[in-house]
Amino acid sequence: MNIEEWEERGLVSPSDMNSFLPPIGCPLKWKLKKEGRGGIPVDRGRAMLGSNIHHMIKTYFQHISDKPSEAEIKRIAENVYEEGFNKGQLSGLKKRAERCWKNFVAFELNRRKTWKVYKPDVIEEKLSGAGFIGIIDFHSNRQATTIDWKSGNLNQLGDEQLRQGKVYKILLENNGHKTGRVLFSALYTGRILEMPLVTDGWVERERNKMVTMVRKRQLTKSPGRLCDKWCPYLLECEMSGVCLWV
Fold first, then answer.
1. Distances, alpha carbon 64 to alpha carbons 60, 71, 104, 145, 202, in Å
2. Alpha-carbon distance values, 84 to 38, 87, 123, 233 (Å)
3. How far is CA 130 from its chain centroid?
C-alpha cells in the first residue's frame, strides 16, 4: 500500500504511529517503506519469531477446550510448539523460543485458576473503526481484559505500548466488546505489565499529528535508537539531502 492508498483508506494502525512518531518512529523510514524501497538487509529473526509465536498462540486456542485441565494445557501447548515452531528458519533462536513458550504456558496455567471463562472472545482478529485499524491478540469480554503478547525484551511501557493499548480499547468498544484493563505479556521475561490510565483524546491527537504530517509530506528523517542496527534505509537516510555532484 503506497502513501496515496494509505491516505485514501483513512485508517491508522498502532504500528503506523509507532513506526512514524517518536520515540522509535521515523517519517522518512515510513515513507521509504510505503514506496516499496528494499534497503539493505537487516536481521529480521526476532520479528519472524514474534510472528511465529503469535501463530502458535492462535493455534493453541483453536485446539484447547473451554475448561481445560492442567494436563490438557501442557499437552496441547507441547503439541502446538512441536508442530508450529519454525525450526528451519528460526533454529538460531530456539532457546529464546523455548523460553517464551515456557512462560506462555506458565501464564496460561495460572490464568486457568483465576478466570471464570478461559477461552477468549477475540483471538488474533483484525478490527477497524473510528479512524483506526489493528489486530487484537486476545480479548475476554467476561474479564474485560485485553492481552498483547510480546516476544521482545519489554521491561517497561512507553508511548508505543500506550498507543497500542488505547487503540485496541477503541477498536473493541466500536465493535461491541466490553473493555477494561490492557495487559502486555512479556513472554521472554515472564513479566505482565498493565497499561495505566491513558487520557481520553491523547491517541486521537497522535493519529491526527501523523495524518497531518503525511498530508503535508513532512517526511524527513528522525534519528532514534533503532537507526544503527535495525533500519534497512540507513544509507538512504545518511545521504538524504546530500548532492553528490558538488
1. 6, 11, 14, 19, 38
2. 29, 9, 17, 32
3. 19
- Residues 6 or more apart from 100 whose CB is under 8 A from it? 49, 53, 151, 187, 188
Q: Which DSSP category does 65 fall into?
A: -
> Pick from 82, 230, 55, 49: which is nearest to 152 by CA?
49
Which grid cell is 72? Answer: 490438557
| Dist CA 230 CA 23 (whole Å) | 14
Per-residue pLDDT of the chain (246 residues; tens, 9 = 90+): 999 999 999 999 999 999 999 999 999 999 999 998 877 766 789 999 999 999 999 999 999 999 999 999 999 999 999 999 999 999 999 999 999 999 999 999 999 999 999 999 999 999 999 999 999 999 999 999 999 999 988 999 999 999 999 999 999 999 999 999 999 999 999 999 999 999 999 999 999 999 999 999 999 988 877 776 668 887 777 655 544 343
The H-or-E segment that residue 63 falls in is helix 45-63
| Residue 39 region by backbone torsions, left for phi larger than 0, else alpha for psi between -120 and 50, else beta | left
Per the CB < 8 A criterion, the answer to whether 47 and 75 are in contact is no
Cell numbers placing 9 = 483508506
- Give, in words, the CATH class of 45-194: alpha beta
d(CA 36, CA 81): 34
Q: Phi first, then psi: what are they for 38, rounded to 5°? A: -75, -45
The ranges assigned to domains in the chain are 45-194
Burial of 244 (C-beta count, 10 Å sphere; 0-12/13-18/19+): exposed
Query: Quick check: pTM over 0.90?
Result: yes
